[in-house]
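Comment on the following before class.
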Amino acid sequence: MFLARHGAAVVAVDHMVSMVDACRRSSLNEKLPVRCVTAKAEHLPCPSRSFDLVLCTSVLDSMDLAGSAAVAGELHRVTLPGGTLLVVTAAAEGSGPGAAGAPPLRARLTSRDQLTTWFRGWHTLELLHLRLVEPASAAMSAQWALIARRGAD
């Protein structure tokens, strides 16, 4: 909602109906023009080259490596050339349980190279390895934050 509060046209996508419903309630309560959509990140219902800014947070954490690669391709497809991408994902090694009731964290990044491999065709502006001071669980004590600009085709 932060971006919508500051005048951005926002499309929020989640595969969980409950999250999309919460988004709708929040945007209605705040009278914000946010389009809330139920869809999987591997198949975004958006035209190619639709967005100048794409945020992807806590999506790759619950996917296998093939799913993560598919999401990376979709993010590239929907971002305008020269557009910006921000991805935040778990960085701890191995697989472990997520938060209570959440699927296991599978696509955990073990290196900077793995993240940049998924996002070829992007110019990395910043790649941060963040240690969480108060992690949600012992299984996720760090995150990667990638900020990149989409290159021309």
In short: The first strand starts at residue 10 and ends at 14.
